[in-house]
Amino acid sequence: MTNLDRYNRKILQELQTDGRISNIELADRIGLSPSACLRRVQDLEKSGVITGYRAVLDNEKRGIGFIAYIAVGLSDHTVPAQEAFEAAMRAAPAVRECHNTTGIIEYLLRVELPDIAAYKVFHVEVLGALPQVNSITTYVVLDSPKDERG
Questions:
Q1: Rounded to whole angstroms, how far apart are CA atoms 95 and 119?
Q2: Using only C-alpha atoms, what is the Rg of the chain?
Q3: d(CA 111, CA 108)
Q4: How confident is the model at residue 150 (pLDDT cuts 50, 70, 90)?
Q5: Which CATH fold topology does 66-140 show?
Q6: Fewest 10 Å CB contacts: which of 30, 32, 92, 100?
C-alpha cells in the first residue's frame, strides 16, 4: 500500500479538483520539486490509489434534464437474481451508478435521462420488466449544491 503522507494527500486533493493540472503547477501548489511530484503521482497510479481520470460534463449541454436516485428492492435474494439485476443495470445506458447496499433495499441507482417522459419509459420498460424487482422508490434530484464526482 502506498504511504498517504501529507504530500500524497495534497496531491490527491488537487487532482480531484483538477485532474488536468500540469505537473509544474501541482508541484508548486503542494511544495515539492516537479520531479518529486511526478514520481509521487506515478507511484499513486501504479499502486492503484489513482485509478483513472475523468472529464466533468455539463448535463444540460448533453441533454440531461432529469437525474434521480432510485432505491430498488428485490423479491428474490439469490446470487443469480442479483447477478441478473446487475447485468441489466450495466446494460442500461441511463444507469450511471449502481450500488449494492445494506438496509431495507438492495440497490441504489443513479440515473440520468433527458426528461420525465424518458424516465417513465425506463421505469416501465427496464426496471418494471425485471422479475426480481419488488420495489422502486425514486428520489428526483432538484439541485446539486455539492457534487465532487469526477
A1: 11
A2: 20
A3: 10
A4: low
A5: Alpha-Beta Plaits (3.30.70)
A6: 100
- 3-state helix, strand and coil shares in percent for the chain, rounded to the nearest 5: 40, 20, 40
pLDDT tens track for 48-101: 999 999 888 888 999 999 999 999 999 999 999 999 999 999 999 999 999 999
pTM of the model: 0.81
User: Where in the sequence of the chain do the CATH 1.10.10.10 domains occur?
Assistant: 6-46
Q: State pLDDT tens for residues 8-60.
A: 999 999 999 899 999 999 999 999 999 999 999 999 999 999 999 988 888 89
Pairing of strands 133-140, 66-74: antiparallel
Q: Which three cell numbers stand for residue 9?
A: 494527500
Q: Which one, of 136, 116, 124, lies nearest residue 69 by Cα?
A: 136
Report the C-alpha gap between 46 and 59 in whole angstroms. Answer: 32
Q: Which three cell numbers mark 38?
A: 511526478
> 6-46 — its CATH code?
1.10.10.10
The residue type of 18 is D
